[in-house]
Design a protein that fits this description.
The protein is an all-alpha fold. It has twelve helices and no strands. The protein is about 80% helix and about 0% strand. It starts with a helix and ends in a 5-residue tail after the last helix.
């Protein structure tokens, strides 16, 4: 009972960190361009994260089963280790793929404890994580070029429509993160009513008090987002995460959003494009799972 409570509390802390860190990815454009107030943006994020968790979080059950942590002691270790990696990345102001770190540490735990490793699942993950950025860069490149190449007939009307679409897509972006990343945490902890209540409360707390905006900062450094650009980036990113969720594949919002932003930047022939932040993000796609794997292997010593 005590270990279950510890695991639940660690899952809640991790949930709050995810919500706070990713709120800006969902509503950063809305807040930066003053389309909505901060209060409205935070509320939108909370609704998106929570609804994704509650309605589609169960789709990560297969992924959680493949990681085979098995008991609350190992689950607590996985959550605590991921929190440590997350906070270390935040200290160095570096974006982190929490999904990759959590899967890395869970795999390391399996190896250290002599548990069976689902190699088919891991190979599938590596393939998806490798191909997704390339495909999203290409897709966002052509979509953004197609949508921005035509002249606007009624600038004010189209601007209004874009603002409404951005609000809708921001909600969908929050929904997909709730379903995928937070869904994975929920299924690792155990999908119970108590888990859902704790995680929804943590989503609200993290969104209100911890929304520092690492991904928003990175996004702005890679490309100065306008309405069209932001809409394309968010649509492509959220569609990719939702597709991955439907087939039970954990996919990082950090990875999809950074890739789609880069593709949008390339569509403008390098205008206002800065690749250094993207390369920093890309480096974390390798560092996150490896750091998690090493920390998971250390469970053998403990």
């Amino acid at each position: 009972m005590l270990l279950e409570l510890v695991s639940l509390l660690l899952a809640s802390v991790l949930t709050a960190l995810v919500a706070g860190n990713n709120l800006s990815a969902a509503v950063g454009t809305l807040l930066g361009s003053r389309i909505v107030t901060r209060g409205f943006g935070v509320t939108l994020g909370i609704i998106g994260f929570s609804s994704g968790l509650l309605f589609e979080g169960y789709l990560m059950r297969g992924a959680a089963a493949s990681l085979q942590l098995g008991n609350y002691y190992l689950t607590s270790y996985a959550f605590a280790g991921t929190i440590v990696i997350f906070l270390a990345a935040a200290y160095f102001r570096s974006p982190l793929s929490l999904t990759m770190a959590l899967i890395g540490i869970s795999t390391g735990i399996d190896i250290s404890q002599g548990l069976a490793v689902d190699s088919d699942f891991l190979i599938k993950l590596v393939v998806v994580w490798t191909l997704a950025p390339v495909l999203l860069i290409i897709l966002s490149f052509y979509i953004n070029r197609a949508t921005t190449s035509r002249p606007m007939e009624n600038i004010w009307q189209e601007a209004t429509i874009l603002k409404i679409l951005l609000v809708v897509v921001a909600l969908l972006t929050g929904f997909t993160l709730g379903a995928n990343t937070l869904g994975l945490i929920q299924e690792l902890q155990g999908d119970t009513l108590l888990t859902e209540v704790f995680m929804v409360v943590a989503i609200a707390a993290g969104s209100i008090f911890l929304s520092g905006g690492v991904i928003k900062r990175v996004g702005e450094e890679i490309f100065a987002l306008r309405y069209h650009n932001a809409l394309t980036s968010l649509i492509v990113s959220s569609a990719a995460v939702e597709a991955a969720t439907l087939v039970g594949i954990p996919l990082s919002n950090t990875q999809t959003l950074a890739s789609s932003i880069l593709g949008v930047g390339f569509s403008h022939r390098y205008k206002l494009l800065y690749t250094k932040p993207f390369l920093t993000v890309a480096a974390t796609w390798v560092i996150s799972p490896l750091a998690g794997l090493l920390l998971g292997l250390a469970a053998f010593i403990i």
